[in-house]
Specification:
Helices cover 59% and strands 22% of the residues. The protein has helices at 2-32, 109-136, 139-191, 193-213, 229-239, 242-246, 273-285, 287-302, and strands at 35-43, 47-55, 60-67, 70-77, 80-84, 217-226, 250-254, 259-271.
């Protein structure tokens, strides 16, 4: 009996170890096997897009292609197509609903006559009542009472108007003083040496992530123009930043006379989850980033 129990425990232990080994193997594959992408875009007289994403020797493969307005997206696993945008958007025709006929309910003639008679009686009684009450009051008293009421209304309106202006001015001054205090705290936060070092380290970390995610191979030709020489020159100055990263692989030709935007672009790269994870862990563990985050929380509470 004891030997059987030990054998069962041995089998269970081996099964658990095998499962843990499989999970560890899958985790290592996910972390170290990169996701590869390839993208080609052409625009000008028309528009064409061709993009591919693959992982683990095309175990998982996705593609997108577009010419004009026709777009196609599909995904394959082990070469088996699991999604196709051309065949997934078919909608079933809705059946027409039967219109329910509701007969309008007409009121009886007797009720209408009774209502009209009662309304007539009320109007007559109201007229007679107004005649009697009108005879009790003199027209001079009504005239003076109207003038007094109008004067009182004007005084109330002017008082509310001036008090409203005073409240608005007071609130505006308080908001300006509060805004000035907030701006001062933000400037102190940005000028602090500890925060500056935290900002610099955070910027370097984000720059590393973008460099890793960015294409390793790039070929781009662009001809552009806004029709205005001034704005075209400004955009050219911004686009020249790409020369710092890719040099001669990017060719930009400005057109200072015509309004045009056409070109051809090809990008190819890879993304490895392990590299991004290491950069993020280093950022979160670093003391400079921790102090920056703590100071930011204090600034947020103060504001």
């Amino acid at each position: 009996m004891l030997s059987v129990l030990l054998l069962v425990l041995k089998i269970i232990g081996i099964t658990i170890l095998v499962l843990l080994g499989i999970l560890l193997f899958l985790l290592l594959i996910i972390l170290f096997v990169p996701v590869r992408y390839r993208l080609k875009v052409e625009h000008g007289d028309g528009f064409a897009l061709d993009g591919h994403v693959s992982w683990l020797l095309h175990f998982l493969h996705g593609s997108i292609s577009q010419t004009g307005r026709d777009r196609k997206i599909w995904v394959r696993i082990f070469g088996i197509k699991v999604y196709d945008s051309l065949h997934s958007g078919k909608a079933e025709k809705a059946r027409p609903k039967k219109k329910s006929r509701i007969k309008p309910v007409r009121p009886e003639k007797q009720e209408e006559t009774e209502l009209t008679e009662s309304d007539a009686m009320e109007t007559e009684s109201a007229k007679t009542g107004m005649k009697y009450t009108g005879n009790l009051k003199r027209p001079k008293d009504k005239f003076f009472s109207r003038i007094v009421n109008k004067v009182k209304e004007l005084i109330k309106k002017n008082r509310g108007f001036f008090t409203g202006i005073a409240d608005k001015v007071r609130n505006l001054v308080q908001s300006i003083l509060g805004l000035r205090e907030r701006i001062g705290r933000i400037i102190d936060f940005l000028n602090d040496d500890i925060n500056r070092t935290g900002f610099r380290f955070t910027y370097d970390s984000i720059k590393k992530i973008l460099k890793h995610v960015g294409p390793k191979k790039l070929k781009s030709t662009l001809v552009f123009g806004t029709g205005d020489p001034c704005s075209t020159g400004q955009i050219l100055g911004v686009l020249c930043i790409l020369y710092c990263f890719y040099g001669g692989d990017v060719q930009i030709t400005p057109d200072f006379e015509n309004k045009v935007f056409k070109g051809s672009h090809y990008a190819k790269g890879r993304i490895r989850a392990w590299t991004i994870l290491v950069i993020i862990i280093k950022l979160l563990v670093d003391k400079r980033f921790k102090k920056l985050r703590m100071n930011y929380q204090l600034l947020k509470e103060a504001l």
